[in-house]
Amino acid sequence: MPIGVGISENVMLSKVSIGEKGALELYFDEAKEAAKANIFDKLSTAKVENDGNETRILVFPFKPPTGVRNEGKTEDELLDITSQDMSKVKNQLTQILELYLTNDEINKTYDPYAGTGVDGTNYRTMLRSEETLEKIFSNMANWFVDLVTPFVGDPKYKLRLKLVRQSKDKHFATLPGKFLEQNPMVELMDVPTPMVKFTKWELDNGLDNGSPIARPDEAAEGGAPREGDNAFSFGQR
Amino acid sequence: MSLDFLKDIKVDEPATKRSGGGGSRKPWNPTEGLAIRVWKDGGVFPSETLIDYLDLEYRAKEAVHQGKGLDVFPSAQASFFKAPKPLILINVVDKDKPRIDLFGQVGYVTEPQEGEPDLEEDVNIGDPLSSVLDQGAKTFGSKSLLPMIKEVYDVEPNEKGYIDLVILGKDGPDATEQFALPDGKTFCHVPKQISRGEAAGTPIYVKREHPRLYILYPATLLEEGGKEPQ
Q1: In this complex, is the C-beta atom of B193 within 8 Å of any C-beta atom belonging to chain A?
Q2: What share of chain A is helix, strand, coil (3-state, %, to 5)?
Q3: What pTM value is reported for the model?
């Protein structure tokens, strides 16, 4: 069964890639040696085969805050939103890398601003540019893939992984994004006392529940959701 | 008690040779070797030799290099350390790391407030308020270390009111060979407890990179078994 919302044990990071549109794709699967059947054996028996239980989690490139909910915000407020997005991804990727590497190994090649021209004097302007943000994300994604690749698919690194519900509306699984130091989203199974747990806030807000929930208007009227209805979303721009 | 068990412990990496030192110290510190004295009130005092060897002394607040502190924990809670009998382990860690058990924190000299006397001639703002030699660390000593020594070694303070613990490396009391992780591993998780708040007492584990591991062993048990490792 694919890994979903909840806490999964004895899983591994089975694959990582950068998709066509620049999103970082993380695949998680049960931590076991894959049984490699050859084509002759596979066709010899008429049986529906499981194509894989991998769960794919997407991490999307940064974008400048836009849309109705961000109209009227000051430059500082918009910069703060961008900063939070970037910090969230940095923390998520760093926590995964810390499963396999020491901090000096992780930081040795970390250079998110490489090739962007961003520095301490111009970042307030530069970080409003979609092109700059995409480049920063690309730097982080490539840094992550380069460091983590030697460990990907190795069942020796068994993990305890927490995936949360995206929002009240969207039941799909995603990586937690806040307070990861105190409430880690992933740890090695070697750690005898688990620290990966749902927080009270996550439980109170139903983020441990991966069940699709019918929207109130669908349930009452049997109709499709209307554009613009998004009353209960979390952390979305 | 024999030190044969040292041969059966699996882990390793060479350490720097200890510096010379020792000599007469205040009565509450051990005077010889790489040792820690734990008093019945929980006060924990290292030998001068140990301070030099493990770089434990406190520095000025703004100093770039701050020295080391110690994690202290039972081997039974460290799944990476396989020993034929229960032991107490120490890990030598940079003082800027969180949750250090011994010699990790000190107060510093501040600007005298109105009405307070001026600083003495050789005292500067930012100097540590005490030396690791006489700081004491009573909280950890009384709440954690004394109970741990009792549980692991069944040893209590002697008639003079203290227990001396010696540092053992893979080679014994000289401790020139620390225990290190196998298979090229560069970090481990050491056990701690949350010390404050609602979750006080909850066991947790913290990641420690490039650990330097030694055994903390009662001197009385060492004397019973002879000083040289078997």
Answers
A1: no
A2: 30, 15, 55
A3: 0.78
